[in-house]
Specification:
Macro_dom-like, 6-stranded mixed beta sheet, 11-stranded mixed beta sheet
Length: about 850
């Protein structure tokens, strides 16, 4: 009989000896008043207490005059499996006795055997009590008498002996019992973790797993379960229940209940077990979907409301774990707790509003402050941040004879650093479209079409790897160019993971063949013109809307000047000729600085007078605030405080225009603002507007005022030098000469050996400004000589300088010679008495600390030096 498979523990069945051959008494004469039952199998029938009386009744119905008595006697043969036999004593007439004797003999001759060895039965027999339980189930049926035994090498075959007599049983009845009246079930309990937490069972789904949730057992439940199993095993011989425990590690163990027996008893136990589990176990239930803001409110603000719900069910030890979106409770309390939670959530009110736009990463920093404000006002808070990039213009400076000379190496370096950053691009506008040059990663630019010529830095292979699965497209345009050797020839592909819509690979290269400058110019123009025409035709013939192109600039051209000028010039010509509104970008890699400078020069040549110098991109963020609370007044108050906080944290101020500023100064000031998350915008009247965190904005304003004052002082000095020429002794600086042509002013830096690094750093900055600087180690042989040659002396003050034995005499000599002395602290120290007496009430500049602070103090120092120079003039 085949049956469904079940996984059960592999336990050995009790050993049952195989059947013995029937032993027959051989006597010369048979005493038919006694019928000896000494066959082992036949003896087993009499173990059923109902068999003897039923057999007597059956025989007396056949032969009414006979009397029958059944007795148990010791075995004559010690080799018999059983230690006893059964004897049926017959009394009555000889004919009745003989007929009864023959009837008994004929009945036992009808005994047959049925073998069951399906997988289902084999799994039953792994239970050591399976045979006895099957026997008990058979014996429980009326008029059904059988003997059950196990057989086979592993005792995994079931043999059932039965009477082939309709008065005793039918084989169909036995088959029906095997098929439908016996059940094996395994209930896998959730794993016990740390003796408290029970994780969801991951056993085979064919096993019963109580609940799809994690469970927490009570000690009372464990005791009741063991007691129930013991009672079933003691009171019922038709069922076997085994509680197994498997230990996985020190903190985790798995329990399972193996049930085998009468289907009625098995089902009854499962139901009783379920009732016990529902009443005495905690199941971990997940709440219905709770929004993130509701979760945040209940976790931080509404914990008292949750305690009220817990208190209502404290007798049942229910517990709410809102951080994990779950609660512990008996099964019968699940709906009640969920209803209480839904009632609490439905009582909450909400409000949504947007804050003022924020620039750079200010919004990221403000999120924590806004959440704190919400919590203090008893509100849950969810903040949604939306970001996009906005472009702002950098104005082109109006160069004059006065401003062009105010350039230092440091200024040029910072300007170039800012202009070569990915956020800045040089632009030139035509009547229709625009051209821009920028440094950055070609793979992440925002454009519709990417055009890649043959390049030597492996860009093509790198882009293919980053793009992923690109697919070559059928050429839809320019079908006259079928020769792949023609230049340029385009292969069109999808962009896959890149930010573009289309990628065009071209066979064009500025090193395609040896050529003179004229041929190179024609070669470049042909590539640009055919590229733009291809894209325009593609736009007309397909459903893809194309508004922008990005060119990857090759780095393998011998004449980069021609490459840059012709690419920019031809692009502008094609835009105007085709009357196309295309935005075309030339993307240069960060390590192509020389090529980048060539492109900057080229694009500046095609810029109109109205054009800005460049544009920079600034991330702008908008915060959408969702508030939730059980009190509407809290919502109103919280919104007001958040809006006030945003107004206080962000400030807008206006400054004058960049009058007399050269381009380097403008670029560096933009960099200064950018580094401090201050947005610099130009109004229509060219006045400057600064927007950002209040401290940073006023710091930028201070920088602007210092730079403005410095420019005016230098202009005044130049004007005086022109009007009143004066001779100056020029001291050659120890460092590289300045590239500036401004008037030379002699400065001496006096320092001690321990402060060499910061002192030389300061000296380098002054040399970059155009000053002739003597950097003098205190106590050197020619210190007094250089003092005589210097008009302004900067003392680099530190504890080491003050304690130096040469310091006091040197400073006294400076005072005697009437030199302008400026105090610069290169270390946080207290001025000595002798220094304060020699230089009383003198303002000092603190040059220690961060680089940003150094820059600001340097501007103040520079203004002091220039003002001193102006006074001297």
């Amino acid at each position: 009989i085949d049956s469904s498979k079940q996984e059960i523990l592999k336990l050995p069945s009790p050993t049952i000896s195989p059947d013995k051959d029937q032993i027959t008494d051989i006597t010369t004469s048979i005493d038919k008043t006694k019928y000896l039952v000494n066959d082992n199998t036949h003896i087993q029938f009499f173990k059923n207490p109902k068999f003897g009386p039923y057999l007597i009744e059956y025989l007396q119905q056949k032969i009414s005059g006979v009397k029958i008595k059944i007795e148990q006697s010791s075995s004559i043969n010690d080799e018999l499996f059983s230690s006893f036999n059964y004897i049926l004593y017959l009394s009555g007439s000889n004919q009745d006795i003989e007929s009864t004797y023959d009837e008994i003999n004929n009945l036992f001759q009808t005994v047959k055997i049925k073998i069951y060895k399906s997988l289902r039965v084999r799994t039953w027999l792994r239970n050591p009590t399976a045979v006895s339980i099957i026997q008990a189930i058979m014996d429980n049926e009326n008029n059904l008498f059988s003997v059950c035994q196990s057989d086979g090498k592993y005792n995994d075959i079931l043999k059932i002996f039965y009477f082939n007599n309709e008065k005793f049983n039918y084989i169909q009845n036995i088959d029906n019992i095997i098929q439908s009246y016996i059940r094996k079930k395994i209930i896998t309990l959730p794993s016990i973790v740390d003796k408290n937490m029970i994780e969801k069972s991951k056993k085979n789904t064919k096993h019963d797993t109580q609940s799809g949730y994690s469970t927490k057992y009570t000690e009372q439940y464990q005791n009741k379960l063991k007691e129930m199993i013991e009672n079933y095993n003691e009171e019922n011989n038709m069922i076997s229940i085994i509680l197994n425990e498997k230990i996985y590690n020190k903190v985790r163990k798995q329990q399972s209940i193996h049930i085998f027996g009468s289907i009625k008893l098995v089902n009854e136990f499962i139901q009783n077990f379920q009732n016990l589990a529902d009443k005495d176990t905690f199941t971990v239930f997940k709440f219905n979907p709770i929004t993130s803001i509701q979760m945040e409110y209940l976790t931080n603000i509404g914990s008292k409301d949750l305690k009220v719900i817990e208190k209502e069910y404290q007798k049942e030890n229910a517990k709410i774990r809102i951080r994990y979106d779950e609660f512990y409770a008996p099964e019968n309390l699940k709906n009640d707790i969920e209803l209480s939670m839904n009632t609490l959530l439905s009582s909450l009110e909400s409000i949504t509003f947007e804050c003022m736009p924020l620039y750079y990463d200010i919004a990221d920093k403000e999120i924590l402050h806004l959440k704190n404000i919400a919590h203090k006002n008893r509100c849950g808070c969810e903040l949604i941040l939306k970001k996009n990039l906005k472009l702002y213009r950098i104005p082109k400076a109006i160069e004059t004879s006065s401003t062009i000379n105010f350039v230092s190496r440091s200024l040029i370096k910072q300007s170039e650093l800012f202009c070569s950053s990915p956020v800045v691009s040089q632009q030139a506008k035509s009547s229709n479209g625009s051209i821009e040059v920028l440094i950055g990663d070609i793979a992440v630019q925002k454009a519709d079409v990417l055009i890649i010529p043959l390049v030597s830095y492996g860009l093509k292979q790198s882009l293919i790897e980053r793009a992923g699965n690109i697919i070559r497209q059928e050429q839809q345009v320019d079908k006259t160019e079928k020769d792949k050797n023609s230049t340029p020839f385009f292969i069109e592909t999808t962009a896959s993971n890149l930010t573009y819509k289309i990628v065009l690979f071209s066979n064009w290269s500025p090193l395609k063949a040896a050529m003179n400058d004229d041929n190179l110019v024609e070669h470049i123009r042909k590539f640009i013109s055919k590229s733009i025409k291809y894209v325009i035709m593609k736009n007309e013939q397909s459903d893809i809307k194309i508004e922008s192109i990005a060119f990857a600039v090759p780095d393998s051209c011998k004449n980069e000047n021609i490459l840059a000028e012709e690419m920019i010039h031809e692009t502008k010509q094609q835009i105007e000729l085709m009357k196309s509104p295309l935005k075309i970008s030339f993307i240069i890699l960060p390590d192509q600085q020389t090529l980048y400078q060539q492109f900057l020069t080229a694009i500046q040549k095609v810029q109109s007078n109205d054009d800005v110098y460049a544009v920079f991109s600034c991330p702008m963020s908008t915060i959408t605030v969702n508030l939730i609370s059980s009190n509407n007044e809290n919502l109103t108050k919280c919104k007001e405080k958040i809006m006030n906080h945003m107004k206080r944290s962000m400030v807008k101020i206006k400054l004058d225009e960049f009058k007399d500023w050269n381009q380097y100064m403008i670029n560096v000031f933009y960099k200064y603002c950018y580094d401090r998350c201050v947005l610099l915008k130009l109004d229509d009247d060219k006045r400057i507007r600064l927007i950002g965190p209040i401290n940073n904005v006023y710091e930028a304003k201070h920088k602007y005022l210092l730079t403005n004052a410095l420019i005016q002082e230098k202009i005044h000095i130049q004007q005086l030098i022109i009007k009143i020429p004066r001779s100056r002794s020029i001291i050659q600086p120890q460092r590289t000469e300045s590239i500036s042509t401004s008037a030379c002013y002699n400065i001496m830096l006096s320092y001690c050996q321990e402060d060499s690094t910061i002192s030389h750093h300061l000296g380098d900055r002054l040399i970059d400004e155009g000053f002739s600087v003597w950097i003098d180690l205190i106590g050197s042989n020619d210190s007094f000589l250089q003092i005589n040659k210097s008009e302004c002396i900067i003392l680099c003050i530190s504890e080491n300088y003050i304690e130096n034995k040469f310091s006091q005499n040197t400073v006294e000599y400076m005072k005697q010679m009437g030199k302008h002395i400026i105090l610069v602290k290169v270390q946080n120290c207290i001025l000595s008495d002798w220094l304060q007496q020699l230089i009383p009430n003198e303002i000092y500049f603190q040059m220690f600390g961060s680089e940003n602070y150094f820059d600001l103090q340097y501007d103040k120092l520079l203004l002091k030096i220039v003002s001193t120079q102006y006074s001297s003039s």
